[in-house]
Amino acid sequence: MGELKAIKPLHVNPLKLSQPMGATLAFLGIKNCMPLMHGAQGCASFTKVLFTRHFNDPIAIQTTAVNDITAVIDGGEKGISEAIENITQKVSPDLVGLFTTGLTETKGDDIKGACALLREKQTMVYVHTPDFEGGLESGWALSVQSIIHQLIEPSLTCNKDKVLLLPNVNLSPIEVEKIKEALELFDFEVYALPDLSDSLDGHLGVKQGALSGGGISVEAIKALGDAGHVITVGRSVKKCGELFCERFLHTTHLHFDSLMGLEACDDFYATLLTCKGLSKPHASIQRWRKRLQDVLLDTHFALGKAKILLADEPDNAYAMAKALMEVGANVEAMIAQRSEVQECFTCKASVGDFEEVEKVLPQYNLLITNYHGERLAHQYHKKLLTRGFPNYEQAGVGLRHNVLYEGSCAFLCEVSNLLGHG
C-alpha cells in the first residue's frame, strides 16, 4: 500500500507535468487534429517546446492567447471563436481539441457553450483540464473520456473481432504499435485511441504540418461503437474503458495495469487466449516468452542485489517496479501524482517531488526518472536511466520499446548493463 504525504503543502522542484500537457498529447494521436489550448500564450509555448524537444518532431498546437485584458472582459466565447477562425483560414482540421488551463478554469469560461456555437463550422471536442489539479496521466485520460462521450456514435451492432485499445500516456508510439501487432496476431481488428504510433513515431513526413501528422481518423473514432472489446492498459485509463462500456453495453472490458515483466505479460496473453478460445498463442509469442525467461536468469545477478529508485508517473513507475522486482531488485517508487494504482505497489511508494527524491537517493545505486533528474544523479554519483517526460538527452525516444515479452527483455538488459552486468 502506498504512503500518502499530507504534511507537505507544496511541490519543490516538481516531478509532475500538467493536465493540459496530457490533453495535448491525446489530441496529437488523432489524424488532422489541432490541439487548441484555451489559456495564455506562454502555457502553449512551454508545452510545444517540451514535446518538440522530447520527440525531436514538430508539435502542432494553437492557443486562444488569453491576456490580462481578455481574461477580465471576455467570457471565452470570443477568444475561442477568433482562434477557430484564424486556424481554419490556413488549414482544415478534421477535429479541434479544445482544453482549458488553470487561468480559464478559474475564470469559469463556458467552453461547452463555445463549442455549441461553433458546431456548424467545425467538429470539436472540449475537455476541462485545469493545471492546478491532476497531472499528465489525468489530462490524457480526461481527454479520452471526452472523445468517447462526444464523438463516438451509437451502434446497434457488435463486432466481436473489433478491439478498441486505450493506452496510457506513458506508452511510447512504438509500444502502442507493438501492442496493436500483438492483438492482430489473435485476428483482432485493432484501433488505438489515441494512436501515437503513426503520428509521433519519428517518421519523415512530406512537410512539417500545422496539424497532427497521423493517428486514428475522426471517421474511425465515430465508428468505434460496435467494438466487441475495449482494452485498457494502465490504471489511469481504466475509467475510460468503464465509460465506454456504460455507453455500449455489448462491449467487454479487459483491463491491465501493466504489460511489463513475465507475470503481467502472461496475464495479458492468457486473457486473449480465453477470449478467442485458443490453447496456445502464436509461435513468435512463445519464442519471446522463452527469451524473457532466459533474460530473467541472465540479469538476476546484477539486478538481484540492486537498489533502485523510481520517480515517474504512477502507471509507468508501477510497470517498471513490477518488472524489476521479478528479478529481485530492491525498489522504491516516488510517483508524480496520486493514483488508484498506488494501492497495487508491493514496494514502498509515495507521492513526491525531486526534493523527496534527493533525500533518499544516497541509499540507492540507480535512479530511473526523466531528464530533470540528471543533475541529482551527477551530484550523488548515481547511475541514471532516463524514462518518462521529458527526455532531452537521447534520440529515438518514440522508438523505445519496453512492453510485452520482447520489450521487457530490452528493459531488463538495459538496466543490468547500466549497473554492470554480473
What does this structure look like?
The protein is an alpha/beta fold and about 425 residues long. Helix content is about 40%, strand content about 15%. The protein is built from 16 helices and 13 strands. The chain has helices at about 20-30, 40-55, 70-75, 75-90, 100-105, 110-115, 135-150, 175-185, 220, 240-245, 260-275, 285-305, 315-325, 355-360, 375-380, 405-420; strands spanning about 35-40, 60-65, 95-100, 125, 160-165, 190, 225-235, 250-255, 305-310, 330-335, 350, 365-370, 385. Strand 5 (about 160-165), helix 8 and strand 6 (about 190) form a beta-alpha-beta unit. The model is unreliable at about 1-5 (pLDDT under 50).
Q: Which features characterize this protein?
A:
alpha/beta, five-stranded parallel β-sheet, 41% helix, 422 residues, Rossmann fold, 3 domains
**How is the biggest beta sheet arranged?**
5 strands, parallel
Question: What is the spatial order of strands in the main beta sheet?
Answer: 11-10-9-12-13
CATH topology of the largest domain: Rossmann fold
CATH superfamily of the largest domain: Nitrogenase molybdenum iron protein domain
Outline, from the CA principal axes? globular
**Mean pLDDT over the full residue set:** 93
- Extract low-pLDDT stretches: 1-6
CATH architectural group of the largest domain: 3-Layer(aba) Sandwich
End-to-end CA span: 32 Å
Look at the structure and give the CATH class of the largest domain.
Alpha Beta
Query: Got a strand count?
Result: 13
Note the run of SSEs as H and E.
Answer: HEHEHHEHHEHEHEHEHEHHEHEEHEHEH
> What radius of gyration results from the CA coordinates?
21 Å
User: What's the number of domains?
Assistant: 3
Strand content: 15-25%
**Structural class of the helix and strand makeup?**
alpha/beta
